[in-house]
Design a protein that fits this description.
Two copies of one chain form a homodimer.
Chain A lengths: L3 E2 L1 E4 L15 H14 L3 E5 L5 H8 L7 E7 L11 H7 L5 E7 L2 H8 L3 H17 L3 E7 L1 H7 L1 H13 L4 E5 L7 H13 L7 E4 L7 H10 L4 E4 L13 H10 L3 H4 E2 L4 H5 L1 H11 L21 H9 L25 H11 L10 H15 L7 H11 L8 E13 L5 E13 L2 E8 L10 H11 L5 H5 L1 E11 L6 E10 L4 E8 L2 H19 L6
Parallel strand pairs in A: 1-10, 2-3, 2-9, 3-4, 4-5, 5-6, 6-7, 7-8, 8-9
Antiparallel strand pairs in A: 11-12, 12-13, 14-15, 15-16
Helix pairs in contact in A: 1-2, 1-13, 5-7, 6-7, 8-9, 16-17, 17-20, 18-20
Chain lengths: 540, 540
């Protein structure tokens, strides 16, 4: 059976930027655009050039992508030509192959928000789209508030779509801008629009999650014949977010009827990367990842209930709707569970740590993990620390060095020419074997900018570790994540540090303390210890 | 038109307990049960007594509720009578007016998980339900894996339901246990089940969010005629969670067709409490609230896009699908680089800062906000810093004090008795008027625990501010949030500090620097300046 093509239009970088608390730099937009391209979406809506300086900057150096790079804007204002509309000119100046313009299709908005007549609005749509086409761009039309507009005046709403298509738009997209339309109505209206003469093959759907139905509404429109979905990674977006492509892509590829009847631009390889891409986006934005996110969440395949866990071990199909490996995720049987011991043995074996089935250390490790997690530690994202914990309980921990003391100083003052500067300095006293070493380091980058106390501490630690120096010298810090956990008197700081070495390894360690420098110190020391163990170093 | 009754069955305390990282104490279960009762749900599934010690403890002292307190369990094992099944006895011993038993309806599970025949399974269902009824309890039957079972053997699946009903169950609930069924199929199967003879008025639906469709699947079943929804507050639950009642209740009460055709046990008063209840649950569990949650999330009515914000000011109906007040939430127009001048004037007016419409400072303020946001500042969550920025551009900023320099030291060493301790100390040199003051402070709490460099810096700053001391003395830090923005050479630290004073004010300020202590310092100084301005203090 020949599958029909379904197109994915990603607006993470534009609608996703409207998420409260989200601010992309141009460099971050570039990295995300490349991830989206590798994933296999068809359009990447990069932002609104001219309106947002960061977006202009991004488009000025936008990466080359297979996906069609698209600039967002709005239809021209009344009272001037499309050629003379400076906002539209700003959008075109970004030079993208495609441009998507949002325009009104709801009489209430035409009158209230724009203060013009229905006829003038149609002219704005027609002239704007025609101008894009004349400039050699692919033109897309986002029909704002479509479902509310259709409810008030269905003929006018459809006429807006037809006007855009006749002016040369390749796609017209039904936008549920307020997010208040339920799936049944989205399906009904989409079918009616197609019956009224808008071809499904040129119809897109853009939904929001204000009733928790963004994904369902997108699917309802596809069921009704639409063939483009606009969404974002991780459901980013205004208010409650857009339809999550992270959630939709696996469903479209793995579940009927979509798997058999529709084809998207994402390959099986791309699908297997979706968990990693989802988590990388959260890292870039330093947003705590949503554990319960479908497919990609760390809990998506976590089977806590005792019944579920023991059944799963016998046969995963009993409690999993898809194989987590297909989306690059993994099954978890959380540590707090009875069935956890066999899972623990399996995880330790993966780390090269063999433990006999009945070793009482297994139960001790589970208890210690629980205890530490109550204190604020998190081993989900700090596998290396988990391994060190296990080795400790198994009596296999080796003792390489001891930090007798450290002192970190941050000073802010005026320099000799009266300019305010900040200086961080760290002193560490390390004992290795019988020897005692003192090291001091400042923390400045090539521009002379102070990188802070944690960086100073790391440099001092790494400066002179005696017999271990060679092993440490190819090690560097890759990422540093801070979370304040608990609240009030229980508040404490959790620091996760990611390290990498010259042999391609990457590992993450965790430290917890009310004192952020101390928490960082704990994570740093663990990072070094893990590296020494993995390098097979013998303690001095 | 007479509305039909739709019943809400809450399983926050049972299925919700299967959320990774969630652990209810019996006291917490009691508090949540009372919240659920005040909200207006019909059944409260409190847990699995006998199987979970905390649940037995909860049921032993369960609060009196209008809602029907319900114990969860499973159908009897084969080879013994219902009366002699000790797990079932444990469930009954809790003495609840209702009991809900989960049982198999999927031949694969009957054979694989239970290792019994289809006939024996029917007998387990029949005998268990009959036993509950004989014991004077309301009996409910959760048909596990129903949609997968129906796909494999529809007749058997329906027969299981009929068996339960004939044995006296008041409700039989179709459970999408793996969460893999899409809404269209849920609707189709529910309709088929009703056609096969199961009355919709005794049919419930229990969905999970593994494809992001838990809410949509619940609505699909209701559209098809089911009349009970099983869900949880805030979508807690195994893996990706259950259908969120926090999301469903407002939709059922405010949106067509449900508003006109169905009636639930929640009143308008209860609905107006749903945001508060949702957030209180997150507080109890110390989970960060989901900002993007439909209806109850802090971002649910946050309008960041410039177009949206200016339209909203004219008429909220333009971009809101429901009035936030109905669910006890509020509209937010965050300050960010997309806000326009009219929005800016409105925000400043709310802060008591009047600015004329054409004041050129407005454009300068917007530009400065954009510039700062490019540097890593975020004013969404730091309203007080935004106000200071505006006052600066308006030439209305007052100069209270100057921090000439500071030095913060964190030291980790062994104390006199050989115990490892951590000590943070800060020295600040402040110039006020013509005077120069030096202050030093350590940072320890009542237990002698070191609270870190930022806390030390705060204490030193707040220790002696000369003429301003009285204003500072009732000020304290409430929250401290750190985010590393950018990456690699662009990485910098953003700190947001939330402060509170004795007059009930709370305000947030932001600081940015690669050095986390310096970023914190900036936020601290702004917090003090804001306080002094709000207190109407005259600079010395």
């Amino acid at each position: 059976m020949t599958r029909q093509r379904l197109y994915l239009y990603d607006t993470t970088l534009r609608d996703g930027q409207q998420t409260q608390g989200v601010q992309f730099s141009a460099a971050e937009k570039t990295e995300i655009a490349l991830m989206l391209d590798a994933l296999g979406v068809d359009h990447i809506e990069g932002g609104w050039p001219g309106a947002n300086p960061t977006d202009s900057e991004f488009f000025a150096a936008a990466p080359a992508t297979r996906a069609t790079m698209t600039a967002f804007g709005m239809t021209k204002r009344a009272g001037r030509s499309a050629e003379n509309d400076e906002v539209l000119a700003g959008v075109l100046n970004a030079g993208t192959p495609a441009v998507c313009l949002v325009g009104k299709t709801h009489p209430f908005h035409v009158h209230e928000a724009l203060g013009i007549s229905l006829e003038e609005n149609l002219d704005n749509i027609r002239a704007s789209v025609a101008h894009l086409v004349a400039e050699g761009r692919e033109a897309l039309f986002d029909a704002e508030h479509f479902f509310d507009g259709y409810a008030e005046n269905p003929d006018y709403a459809v006429l807006c779509l037809k006007t855009a298509l006749e002016a040369g738009a390749t796609w017209v997209i039904l936008c549920d801008t307020n997010g208040g339309t339920l799936p049944a109505e989205v399906g009904r209206v989409t079918r009616a629009v197609i019956v009224a003469g808008i071809p499904g093959a040129r119809l897109g759907i853009h939904t929001h999650d204000d009733t928790g139905n963004a994904v369902a509404c997108a699917l309802a429109a596809i069921d009704a014949g639409a063939r483009q979905i606009q969404g974002t990674l991780n459901g980013l977006g205004e208010r409650c977010g857009n339809a999550s492509l992270t959630t939709l892509i696996p469903t479209l590829m793995l579940k009927e009827p979509y798997r058999s009847t529709l084809e998207i631009g994402v390959t099986a390889q791309g699908l297997s990367q979706i968990t990693r891409i989802s988590r990388r986006l959260d890292e870039i934005l330093n947003r705590p990842p949503l554990r319960a996110a479908p497919y990609a969440g760390s809990s998506a395949f976590a089977h806590k209930a005792g019944l579920h866990a023991s059944a799963i071990l016998k046969n995963p199909a009993t409690y999993e709707h898809v194989d987590p490996a297909l989306v690059g995720n993994q099954r978890i049987i959380p540590m707090s569970n009875q069935a956890g011991q066999s899972n623990l043995r399996a995880r330790l074996a993966e780390a090269g740590i063999e433990v006999c089935r009945d070793d009482p250390a297994l139960a001790r490790i589970l208890d210690l993990v629980k205890l530490r997690e109550d204190q604020g530690y998190a081993y989900d994202g700090a596998q290396a620390s988990f391994e060190l914990l296990a080795l400790g309980e198994l009596g296999r921990m080796q003792h390489f060095f001891d930090v007798e003391r450290y002192r970190v100083t941050v000073e802010r003052r005026k320099n000799a020419i009266g300019r305010r500067i900040s200086v961080s300095e760290a002193v560490v006293v390390v004992r290795i074997g019988g020897e005692r070493m003192l090291s001091v380091s400042e923390s400045v980058d090539e521009q002379g900018e102070d990188l802070g106390p944690v960086n100073a501490l790391w440099r001092a630690l790494a400066k002179d570790l005696g017999p271990y120096q060679a092993n440490i010298s190819d090690m560097h810090l890759v990422d540093f994540r801070v979370r304040i956990t608990g609240s009030g008197v229980d508040a404490t700081t959790r620091v996760i540090i990611e390290s990498a070495d010259g042999q391609g390894r990457r590992w993450a360690t965790v430290g917890v303390s009310p004192n952020i420098v101390d928490a960082s110190f704990e994570a740093l020391v663990e990072a070094i210890r893990w590296k020494l163990i993995r390098d097979g170093v013998k303690p001095a």
